[in-house]
Amino acid sequence: MFLVLELHQKNIANHYAMVETICNINTKHSVIFIATGCHMNSEETLAVFERLAEDSQKSLKVDRNKITVGDAPNGKYFRTYNQREACDATELNHRQMIKTIDDLSIDSTDGRKFCIDINDVEKIREHLFVDERLVRTTFNKAIIVAISNLKGGTGKTTVTTTFSTGLCTETQKRYRVLVIDLDPQGTASMYLKPNISDDDFTVGDLLIGNYALDEGETFEELAKATCYPTNTPDLHVMPIRPSDRNYEVVSKKKQNNEEEKGREFIVYEDLKKIIDAVSDDFDVIMLDTPPNFGALTISAHYVANSLIVPVLPSQNDRDSTSKYFDFLTEAYKVIQLLGHKGYDSVNVLPTAVDIHSNAQTSIASKVRIASSNNCFSVDFLESEAIKNCAEKQNTIFDQSASEYDATRSSLKSIQNSTRTLIFALEAQIQQIWREELK
Predict the structure, then answer these.
(1) Measured on CA atoms in the order 167, 170, 176, 178, is the torsion positive or negative?
(2) pLDDT digits (tens, 9 = 90+) for 260-286
(3) Which distant-in-sequence residues (6+ apart) come within 8 Å of 372 by Cβ?
(4) What is the mean pLDDT of the chain?
(5) Is 4 within 8 Å of 34 (Cβ atoms)?
(6) Least buried of 105, 303, 314, 325, by fewest C-beta within 10 Å?
(7) Left if phi > 0, otherwise alpha if psi is -120 to 50, otherwise beta: which for 395?
(8) Is the entire prediction scored with pTM above 0.85?
(9) Residues 50-95 pLDDT 10s
């Protein structure tokens, strides 16, 4: 049975206590609320927006508090492995695994179950593959990848966080990866550092100059301290806050001041200063960009030496991306005049492709064909596991199948298909470094 309550929009806030009481006592009924239209004056309209903002923040805070009770530096839990998963990750058989954890004094017991976390797996890998940790020489530059598309909702953040985590967990060499979140919405920051506090510095603080160096402290030291560890070994994040969007205003003021003095304003210098300060500590730096071509996006395109363009498999997104490439052609002419030396790689990537949809697979195929040599050979597929993991602000490589609370086969399947993309990106990274040494 259903109980229908009709409430005027402007009075909903006043009825919250009544609504809560009705929900508690009507356990035998499904309660449906209908907010009927009613003209509101400007003050009442503002009150609605304030309530929506406040309640939304409260709801997000509840979810975030549930996520940030773990033992990792970012408040999340470290990924765990059962014995089979640990053997697969380290390429050991069961007997070799038992001997190795014995030699390394690793506690693998969780009640009666075998269970180790990702830090233990890293210890084993370091013990077995010492030389594999040396992924680049001092002559190699860090690979800086901008994930960009001016069309919103194409999966930029999902690609950024998934690829970053995958490079740290799924490859044999285990790269040192930094994610710099340049999108003021801060979704990548919430994935990788959900326990960000008011005392933490952000990329916006460094860009705007919202800091005071301690005596003897250098900007380089501050920038490195702003690269926060996550629940994945070797993966760090430089987060952003919504207020950091003020950098767009600050950079515009800088431009006006420089032009008044008859000097050229170079927009990318603020971000380049940060990259220069931290790049020696990382093999790969991933830049999650906002869906607009402002100062942050222009800067990202300039400091990057590789580019990934996610594209959803719909005709509208295909059209939008085509227009983005037209715009990027003209924008890059400006970046070129500023001294950019060219990208090492440009990859178009169809994202969230449903393999059961003929329309989507057809469009994804057209995108790959149109992109010729500038496209990954496989797509980033749609998966319920990606959505389930995202609900807990995890990527698909933040969890093992044994700890996944939904259909395990769906997680394994998307991990396997996405691992192919991770290996393709790794091959490009290694190829770039080889060419640099020639």
Answers:
(1) positive
(2) 888 877 888 999 999 999 999 999 999
(3) none
(4) 87
(5) yes
(6) 105
(7) beta
(8) yes
(9) 888 888 888 877 777 778 888 999 999 999 999 999 999 999 999 9
Sign of CA dihedral 120, 125, 130, 133: negative
363 CB-near residues (< 8 Å, 6+ apart): 313, 314, 315, 318, 350
Q: 352: exposed, middle or buried (C-beta count within 10 Å: 0-12, 13-18, 19+)?
A: buried
Residue 26 has pLDDT above 60, yes or no: no
Q: Which DSSP helix (H) or strand (E) runs through 253?
A: helix 246-260
Q: Report helix, strand or coil for 268.
A: coil
Rounded Cα–Cα distance for residues 120 and 363 (Å)? 43
Dihedral of CA atoms 377, 383, 387, 393 in degrees, nearest 10, equals: -50
Helix (H) or strand (E) holding 117: strand 116-117
Q: Which of 286, 115, 288, 94 is nearest to 185 (CA)?
A: 288
> Amino acid identity, residue 403?
E
CB atoms within 10 A of CB 211: 14
